[in-house]
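Reopening this one. Same input as before:
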Amino acid sequence: MAYILGIESSCDDTSAAVLKDTLLLSNVMASQEVHKKYGGVVPELASRAHQQNIVPVVSQALDLAGIGIREVHAIAFTRGPGLLGSLLVGTSFAKGLSLSTGTPVIEVNHLTGHVLSHFIDVPSPSGTGTEPASGRKPDFPFLCLLVSGGHTQILKVKAPLAYEILGQTIDDAVGEAFDKGAKLLGLEYPGGPQIDRLAREGDPEKFPFARPRIENLDFSFSGVKTSFLYFLRDMQAQDPGFIASNQAHLAAGLQKTLIDILTEKVIRAVKMTGIKRVALAGGVSANSGLRTRMILESGKRNWDMFIPPLRFTTDNAAMIAITGYYKWLEGRTSGLDIAPVTRSSLMPGE
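Same output, byte for byte:
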């Protein structure tokens, strides 16, 4: 049995969680509202907020778990990818806590955490046992569509810490395309959820947008963003009120285009590998249109589909702690000379 403290500070959310093996005991998060008025995350403001939040967040996570810091077997922290200033706060705090308590630290790839969120257990409603937070856990190997603001990948997950990248974006991530489209429509940050909300009210067939032709399992979203930008520019030249009067239809058309691109690649990946166990992960997996589409495709194509709970789609420390647990089982702790990395993709053995 091991207690794992997880710390997540890759972007603008400060989070701490405690696991007892795979069982979630606490998962505390402090969000930063200050970025809304700037239309995006301001790195300097984010790192300052992390400095203010990290001590009370970690303290609350331990209190809710009912344990003291010296009962923790390992401190798992996000090494990257993310914003350097934000990562430095979490990394430095974890190392300082390690020095003061003698507790080992474990570096975690943020993307691995998203994938392994499917393996978190929670107390059962009856209070007499535990159950997977996602309802079910995928057997290995399975395919994972990892979609976020910074990454878009299709992975073959062979074991908790063994991955093969089958395809990834060659330019922008799908989350960036959602956020850029939302900004062009005059929507508030964060834009992805605003697009999702508006799309439910619009006609996704009214305004189709160009899709890239990428032969393998890689993705490209820069062309979709450009097509959307030019379309809005040309239509506004004819009618200055075009965006305001068609906002919901535009959101629906953009969302459908992006979801079609993602879905087509997953279909191709299943055919290429013969693996019919498919999981979603990452912040964009909260999108209701994507979740609905993948469930529909799984029914049509006889896939075994795994959809994460909404609370584990965004950045959170529970996913860092579960990754730390699997590394702890393999004895893979980190030295105190470890430094954060701003850019990283999943690599075999992570």
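So the earlier flakiness isn't reproducible anymore. For the record, Residues 80 and 283 are 16 Å apart (CA to CA).
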